[in-house]
Amino acid sequence: MSERNRSVPSVGMVGGGQLARMTHQAAIALGVGFRVLADSPSDSAALICGDVQLGDDRSPSDLSAFAKSCDVITFDHEHVPEPVLRELEKAGTVLRPGPDALRYAQDKLLMRARMTELGAPCPRWRGVATAADVDEFAAVTGWPVVLKAARGGYDGKGVWVAGSGEEAREVLDGAARAGVPMLVEEKVVFTRELAVQVARSPYGQVAAYPVVETVQRDGICHEVIAPAPGLDEERAVRIQELAIEIAHALGVVGMLAVELFETESGVVVNELAMRPHNSGHWTIEGARTSQFEQHLRAVLDLPLGAPGATAPYTVMANLLGGADPDVYRRYVHVMAKDPGVKIHFYGKEVRPGRKIGHVTVLGDDYEDLLARARDAASYLKGDQQ
Amino acid sequence: MSERNRSVPSVGMVGGGQLARMTHQAAIALGVGFRVLADSPSDSAALICGDVQLGDDRSPSDLSAFAKSCDVITFDHEHVPEPVLRELEKAGTVLRPGPDALRYAQDKLLMRARMTELGAPCPRWRGVATAADVDEFAAVTGWPVVLKAARGGYDGKGVWVAGSGEEAREVLDGAARAGVPMLVEEKVVFTRELAVQVARSPYGQVAAYPVVETVQRDGICHEVIAPAPGLDEERAVRIQELAIEIAHALGVVGMLAVELFETESGVVVNELAMRPHNSGHWTIEGARTSQFEQHLRAVLDLPLGAPGATAPYTVMANLLGGADPDVYRRYVHVMAKDPGVKIHFYGKEVRPGRKIGHVTVLGDDYEDLLARARDAASYLKGDQQ
C-alpha cells in the first residue's frame, strides 16, 4: 500500500538491506513516509516495507524516478557513485548526507587526507601506486602493513594484510588490473576496537551516543558492548568530541559511525560510515532513541532524540548463518532458554557466514550479558546442538 | 512486496488499525511473516505494511481467502461475528484466540455469567429486557446504574449511565428498536481504574505484565502509569493471578487485558479484551517484551518473552486529535522541548477526539513523567500554543 500522506514528509532510502528494514520500523512510529529503493523483492527491507520501488541504485534514471516521490533521499549503503549523486543534487533532490560528505565515506584516500588535515589521530598511511611505494612505507613502519582499496575493491575484498614486499606486489598487481586506487596503512597494535556514533542535523544539532567496544573476528563484527567496559571517562568524552568535530567538518547529515582502534597511548580512527551502522544496533533497545529513529530525525531536520542508555550495559551479537537453513526451528529454543534475549531477524536466506540478524541483551553485568548473547548467537548458527 | 518465506510461519491479522500497525513492527524483528486484512488502503496498518489484503472483516469469503495465505489468524478487534469464526474454524483455519474464548470478549452477558461462575469479583449485574427489570435491580443497588449493550450497541454507543427509571426506559427502548440485548450493572464507586495484561500460548505458558493504572476521562483512556503507583504488592499479585486464571479458564491464546475498578475493599472486573490493548502500549519501551511481540509469540506458540519493566516507571499518554490537522508541525516542537519523549503516530487523519497516536516517557518519578506525557499530548492536540 502506498497512499501518500501529503501532510508529512517522505524519506526515501536507497538500498533494501537490513538497515532500511530497521529504519522502516522507526519510520512507522514517527508516522513519516518511508520508501525503499531495492534491488529485488527478496531484499531484507523489501520483504516487509509497504512502499518499495525496485531499481538499480547506480542508475541515474531509477534514482531520479525514486527521488520524485520523496522529500529527502538517504542511504542504506555507500555504493551510489559520486557523479550520480552530483547529478541528482543538481536536479534539486535533497540528499542527506550529500555527496560533499559522502565522498569521505566512499573514498578512503580522501578520508585519510581529510582526517590528517583535521588533526584527527590516524594510523600512518599513504597512497600507493607500486610495490616500491609500499616497500618505502614499510621501511619506516615495519611489516606487516595493511593495504586498502580506496574505493570498492576487487575479488570481493577491500582490505589485505601484507607481510612482505612480495605479498604487497601481488595485491597491487591485482588492484592495478582492476583499476582500483590503493593506500597503505601501518598495522596498528591495538588493545581493542571501539566505535562511536553521532547524529547531526542540517540545523547543526548533534547527539552523541556512548562509546562502545566492538569485538571483531576475521574482519567481521561479532559483538558490541555498550558502553565500552572500563573506558576512561575522559577518553570517552574526547572520542565523542572527535566524532562531533568530524561530523561538523565533513558536513555529515544523519548518523556518523567512527570506528577506532584503542592503543596503549590513545585511539586512532579506522573507518567512517555515514548511515546507521552495525555498531549501533544495540540502540534499538539500549538507547532512548535508536540510531534508526535518530537517522530519520536528522535527515528530516527534526530535533534529535535523547541518545542516553536505557540500562547499565547492552550487548549485541550478530547472528551469522550456519549450515542449518532452518533458523526458525533453532530460535524457538533460544527463546525458551532465555526469555530476555531480544531477537532481530532480517528475513534473509541463511548462508554460512552471512549476517542474518542480531540479538540484544540488557542488564548490569556485561560479562554475563556477553555470555548470554554469544550463547544465543552460537546456538542459532548451529555451533551448539 | 509479498515474497512469502516458506521456512517461517505467517500470521494474518484481521483489522488494519493501530494495533495491527504496531504488531507489524514487532513481526519485522521476529522475522515472521505478517499479513493484514484491512478495510481500506488508508487504514493505519495498511499504510505501512508490506503485505495487505483489502477486504471486509465480516465477510466469510474475504476472511477465508485471507486465511489461505496465513498459518495463524489473529485479530486487531473483536468484530468478526461468532458464526463466521466457527465456519472458518470448521474449514481448518487456526484462529488464535478461537471463538470459544473470543465470545467472552464479544458478549458482555456471557462474560459476566462466566466471571461470576469463576468467582471473579464483578459489579452486581443482570440481563435486562425491560425498564421494570432495571427498576427492580436499582431498588437493590440504588441509582444511578450502568446499562450496557451485550454486543455492539446503537447510535455509536454501548454504555449508558441511567440516573432514573425514565432514563433507563429511554435507553432500553432504543436498544429494543436496534435489537440489542442489554445488561445492567451497579455503578461502582472506585478509587481508580487498573488494568493487567497476561499472555497465554496454546502450550499453556503464561506471562503476566505489571498491573497499571489507567486514567480515563469521558470514557476515553488518557494516560497509563506502569506500574500502578502505590498499589499494594499482595493485591498486585492477586490481580495478576486473577488474570492468569481467567486466561486459562477461557482458553485465551494471545494477549488478554483485564480492566478493573479498584475500590475501598478490593477490585472488580470491568472489561476483557483478547488482543493487544491500549493499556499495554507502554510496553513497547517500558517492558522487555512488548505486548505486540508477546501476542505474536503466543499465537505462534513460541516461548513467551520476559514481561518485566525496563524502568521504574513508564507513563503512556494517548494523543487525541484537536482542531489543527497539521500535527507534524506541532510534533517538531514537542521533540525540541523534550528529547526523551517517545512519539508513536498511527498515520491516521486528524479528527477532533480521535486517537491518532501516543507518547511514552520513562524514568523514576511518575509524577514528573505524567506531567511530561500530558504536556506533550496537550501540545500535540493543540490545547497549548
From TrEMBL, chains A, B:
Alphabetic keyword roster: ATP-binding, Ligase, Nucleotide-binding, Purine biosynthesis
EC number(s) per entry: 6.3.4.18
GO biological process: 'de novo' IMP biosynthetic process
Database matches in InterPro entries: ATP-grasp, ATP-grasp_carboxylate-amine, ATP_grasp_subdomain_1, PreATP-grasp_dom_sf, PurK, PurK_C, PurT/PurK_preATP-grasp, Rudment_hybrid_motif
A Pfam family matched in the record: ATP-grasp
Keyword match GTP-binding: no
Biological or metabolic pathway of the protein: Purine metabolism; IMP biosynthesis via de novo pathway; 5-amino-1-(5-phospho-D-ribosyl)imidazole-4-carboxylate from 5-amino-1-(5-phospho-D-ribosyl)imidazole (N5-CAIR route): step 1/2
Domain of life of the organism encoding this protein: Bacteria
Binding site for ATP: 108, 148, 185-188, 193, 270-271
Catalytic activity, as annotated: 5-amino-1-(5-phospho-beta-D-ribosyl)imidazole + hydrogencarbonate + ATP = 5-carboxyamino-1-(5-phospho-D-ribosyl)imidazole + ADP + phosphate + 2 H(+)
UniProt-recorded Gene Ontology molecular function terms: 5-(carboxyamino)imidazole ribonucleotide synthase activity; ATP binding; metal ion binding; phosphoribosylaminoimidazole carboxylase activity
Annotated SUPFAM superfamilies: Glutathione synthetase ATP-binding domain-like (SSF56059), PreATP-grasp domain (SSF52440), Rudiment single hybrid motif (SSF51246)
Entry's Gene Ontology cellular component terms: cytosol
Segments forming domain ATP-grasp: 112-300
Quaternary structure (record): Homodimer.
Function: Catalyzes the ATP-dependent conversion of 5-aminoimidazole ribonucleotide (AIR) and HCO(3)(-) to N5-carboxyaminoimidazole ribonucleotide (N5-CAIR).
NCBIfam families for this protein: PRK06019.1-5, PRK06019.1-6, purK
UniProt family annotation: Belongs to the PurK/PurT family.
Protein name: N5-carboxyaminoimidazole ribonucleotide synthase
Gene source species: Marinactinospora thermotolerans DSM 45154
